[in-house]
Amino acid sequence: MNLDLILTRLRKPLKAARNRDGLTLIELVIVISLIALIATFAASNFFRTAAKAKVDATKVQMKQLGNVLDLYRQECGTYPTTEQGLDALLNEPAAEPKCRNYDREGYLKEKKLPGAGFGNPFLYESDGSQYVLTSLGADRKEGGEDENRDLRSDQPE
Predict the structure, then answer these.
(1) Span 53-58, mean pLDDT?
(2) Cα dist from 42 to 37, 49, 69, 78, 106, whole Å
(3) Number of domains, the chain
(4) What DSSP string runs through 76-140?
(5) 123 pLDDT band (50/70/90 cuts)?
(6) Which of 17, 76, 99, 123 has the smallest CB count inside 10 Å?
(7) Distance CA 16, CA 4 (A)
(8) What is the pTM of this model?
(9) Boundaries of domain holding 94
(10) Does 34 reside within a domain?
(11) Does 14 reside within a domain?
């Protein structure tokens, strides 16, 4: 075989590939529709997962704060009252009942109160013998469903 014949045979597939037209309008619309469908599905899963993660983070923060409140009760004899609030975990309360064994360093290492996973503070109620921590959920209003529902430390999960 001569070299010209070999080169001609090699060029034919390249020439054919160059002459092929691009995508038709129908093919382009189908491709864009499929991409949009996949993106919608992925985005809805992402937001659902993100909302569940915030609920789970709130439950963990609530449990950890409950452990700190239990430590406060062990050392002081009572939980901080509603009037004293969660600030009693950071600063010795001025209001009664006084705590004789109050840890001068406070009870939280970060020196700030943890918030719920939704960025809002926990609500705290206590008569000194028991307490309730509440997170109002993503909507920051009482009631709601799914990620908007209130989470309370005295309710089972």
Answers:
(1) 86
(2) 9, 11, 40, 49, 45
(3) 1
(4) HSSPPPTTT-GGGGTS--SSSSP-TT--TT-S-TTSS--B-TTSPBPEEEE-SS-EEEEE-TTTT
(5) very high
(6) 17
(7) 19
(8) 0.68
(9) 47-157
(10) no
(11) no
